[in-house]
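Lecture notes, unit on protein representations.

Consider one protein chain, 268 amino acids long.
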Amino acid sequence: MKIEFCSLSSGSNGNVTYLAAGGTRVLVDAGLTGQAISKKLAQIDVLAETIDAILITHEHSDHIVGAGVLSRRHRIPIYATEATWQTRAMSRLVGEVPPALRRVFDSGSEFFVGQIGVSAIPILHDAAEPVAFRLHAGSNSVSVATDMGKVPKSVLRALAGSDLILLESNHDPDMVLHNSRYPQFLKQRILGSLGHLSNLMCAHTLGELQGTGVRHALLGHLSQDNNTPELALQTVSQELARQGLTPGQDIRLDMTFRDRVGALYTLG
């Protein structure tokens, strides 16, 4: 079964990923306004009212701000863990969601949305119960794994062998440490074990995953203040080369963007 995959927006300003397989269409996160998400979907010839589900990774605003509007306007179910549903952020930013459109899954569980199988992978981040997602259709699978302070072996095992992975490459640590506009507590949060993956940590993770069969990665969730697409790609490529891998041959690297829709990929 073929999978279509497109990053509509990725970064600290808002995260939305589109995926379709076998007539089922889902969004992973809805971190832009409902209107902005609808316009971005239109750029890949998808109507917002044809989305079958919104899967929420965690309750931070750059992942949920448009979920409630889209859900109420187009009767789209929202899937989140119970701990995520119970947060103040979900109540404030998503608003009232009719019971018929509210879905609850357990972290670590597997379930289906139409013809798409979903694995909810527990991750480490400063949120109530954050998850990454691996989505399956037939023999193909794609993963969305961002907002992680580190990547334990359990997460590596869950992501192993994905045909395509959107993996966080959030920041350059030196840029964070020398950012005069960031208070010390924010720097510690970003760099901590419940924060975000650096470019180098992203490369280390991809090196591990390449050995499991991962051959295509999108670098995502780049910080606007503490990274650039050029630096992320250069750092990841150089570190993979240091590990003996050839980017573009052993593993393909592409970028996601905060200011425009990324490429539309078809797998299978």
